[in-house]
Amino acid sequence: MSNSGLFKNPDKQLIALKWVEKTNSVIRVIFTLLIFFVWLIDLGFPNQEIFPINSLLYGIAFFILGQNYLYRLIFIYKDSKKGRLQLEVVLTCLLHFSAIIQFGWLDGWNWLQAYQGTFTDLLISMLFFIELSRLSLGINKLSIHPALIFILSFLLVILVGTVLLMLPNATVGGITWIDALFTSTSAVCVTGLIVVDTATAFTGMGKTIIMILIQIGGLGMMTFTSFFGFFFKGGHSLQSQLFLKDYINEDNISKIGSTLVKIILFTFGFELLASGLIFVIIDPILFSSTGDRAYFALFHSVSAFCNAGFSTLTNGLYETGFRTEYHIHLILAISIIVGGIGFPVIVSYYQVGKRICINYYNSFTKKDSFYHHTPRTFNINTRLTTVTTFILLVVGFVTYWIFEEKNTLAGLEGYGKIVTAFFGSVTPRTAGFNTVDMTQLALPTVLIYLILMWIGASPGSTGGGLKTTTFAVAVLNAISIAKGKDRVEVFNRQIDPETVRKAFAVILLSFLVIGMGVFMVLFFNPELDILDVAFEVFSAFATVGLSLGITAKLTTGSKLVISLIMFLGRVGTLTVLVAFIRKTRSLRYKYPQETVFIS
């Protein structure tokens, strides 16, 4: 029997094509992981300790991957969208060009040698993120609870970050596994607590790893990978969209892709804008080179927007020379507020601003459409978040000004005093930067900081903590009970009873975690003052990063406890319970109702 029938049968052709596509994908994943692993060895180990990496290995891998993408272009992407097709064409060309460079066939082009390393680093990083994104989009097919996937994504990044920070070239004199784990957890959970000096313990490579961990942790691993997968896998299926909507707080399933793009573009755009302003405004005399000034601006911009609080300065922004850069403090404070207010709020303001601009433009260009109705965009979440954030900032500013008048504000006047007080009200809201000596804070200020840290940032933001809306709902519920109401109302809307129950559940869990954290740290470090420990634990749970100076004194047990609290504060205690406790499908019964005395 002739095998030629295989090519005449459409069904067999389809089966054969799918088998080839699957094989092609497996080959692409294997070579991408292989070249990424070799690249990490090349970057992380000194040449004298690890065998030298031959450019031939890179060249072969780039060539095979280039051929792989070329096959996809010819046989798979015939009906692809134009934008996605262009990206694949560019990537295919870059892979073949990189292979030619690695083979040494362009030795006459001396200018390429200066940028060959940087070009290779960027290309390998992009290849890795693309493949990781493709794989992440298929994770929804697994029978795993979305909350558990969310938790595991953070845990995976923390473990990878720990390994990367332990690479010899990442540190100046080496680092223990517990310090690497603590630093990675603090970066991914955008906390900012440090057990080793970031400025002196880590090399440029180590600091860059920390900055990348902060960026991924601030936005969330699923947001990053879904964004890349949106382009390189041709969008999302309905199942993927349902899986992603809770991660990015988007109720409209049809807008999942556009919301992802807005989040990523706004984040990178704002960080670049802030870093550009810092670079231009800051005194150049504080840096040894223009490159150092640019890196300082970028690192602190990312750290501020992600509410991380990491700094490349030993004493943070209180470093001599930097403590009086009030314009920089103001830029970072605004970045902290914008990053901590939440992406749903930012998207809402964007939509309203867009409609206002369209109406304004139409009023000059279209005579028959002078006015267009602007639908209600500011939902109760946006309004409640905005009002609560504003109140907390005002309360923080006023109390800081009053209680620190004779302490950290002593000797300051005018603009410098105002900015310092304003920054002092912003930074405990999960930011973690310090422009003053934290050990000199007055006791009332420390207690107020505990409350502000506990409340934290807003839902859907880069920050952690209890969340502003949770605190606001709890306060509104207390007021409603005092007024004798049977429901919670605000802004002419009624808050869902389930939301009220969740708010009090989160509050209870936060106190349990914080209480156990204080107990365990005092168990491992009984010599520490209880107020200092409480401040540390509150800071860890709210992913703030402020400390009264005891972080470096923690023992291994205390470091593990603080790391766990930072992790729980970032992913959410209620999320952990939901992930591991089986959900009740339905309640087909109802017990008799009785009253429990509450006084």
Account of the protein in words:
- By secondary structure, this protein is an all-alpha fold.
- The termini are far apart.
- Residues 1-7, 48-52 and 234-239 have low confidence and may be disordered.
- It has a domain at 1-137.
- The protein has helices spanning 10-44, 55-75, 82-102, 110-137, 146-165, 177-188, 198-201, 204-219, 221-232, 238-244, 256-281, 290-305, 326-340, 343-365, 380-403, 414-426, 443-455, 468-482, 497-524, 530-541, 556-571, 573-580, and strands at residues 489-490, 493-494.
- Helix 6 (177-188) packs across helix 8, helix 9 crosses helix 11 (256-281) and helix 15 runs antiparallel to helix 17.
- It has a two-stranded antiparallel ribbon with strand order 1-2.
- It is built from 22 helices and 2 strands.
